[in-house]
Design goal:
The structure is a single chain. With 150 residues, this protein is an alpha+beta fold. The chain has a single domain, classed as Aminopeptidase (3-Layer(aba) Sandwich), CATH 3.40.630.30. It contains 4 helices and 7 strands. The protein has a 7-stranded mixed sheet with strand order 1-2-3-4-5-7-6, sandwiched between helices. Helix 3 (87-98) links the parallel strand 4 and strand 5. The longest helix is centred in the middle third of the chain and has 12 residues, at 87-98. The chain is globular, with a radius of gyration of 15 Å.
């Protein structure tokens, strides 16, 4: 499946919110409104990319730089009907290429989100820790890290 990566704009906020609301699981901490998306993520200076298949948005991935040598992957979301088709792998691969000179890449995911954990481990991330109530939602998160070895 061919994926086009493009920079998200304010015009994408409504679609992003719809994709977010399609997840009703405690394993996923979703954005709750358009203002949160536009003010905190689209305008924060993050790299926020829409994943398009045949010019239809099917997901997104975002990261932010924290200093000159560290990145934090904020989000990887693929709509349910497009999951298990290699889109998440292509998105992480694309992001890893973009961040190839970064010394440390971090992200968090719910420990029960087994497909996500397997995906990140496949790309060389290691589980660094566990934090209870990470987002204040009563749910734990795994902290995963990929570090460059010199």
């Amino acid at each position: 499946m061919k994926i086009k990566f493009r920079k998200a704009t304010d015009k994408d906020a409504a679609n992003i919110l719809l994709m977010e609301k399609s997840f009703s699981s405690k394993t996923y901490h979703a954005y709750t409104n358009i203002d949160e998306i536009t003010s905190n993520y689209l305008r924060k200076g993050n790299a926020f990319l829409i994943l398009d298949v045949k010019d239809n948005p099917v997901g997104f991935i975002s990261y932010e730089m924290r200093g000159t040598s560290q990145a934090y992957i904020n989000d990887l979301t693929v709509m349910y009907e497009y999951q298990n088709k290699g889109i998440g792998s292509k998105a992480i691969g694309f992001m890893m290429e973009r961040l190839k000179d970064t010394k440390r890449i971090e992200l968090v995911t719910h420990p029960k989100n087994i497909p996500a954990v397997k995906l990140y481990l496949k790309f060389g991330f290691e589980i660094e820790g566990w934090k209870d109530n990470y987002y204040g939602d009563g749910e734990p998160r795994l902290i995963l890290v990929k570090s460059k070895v010199k």
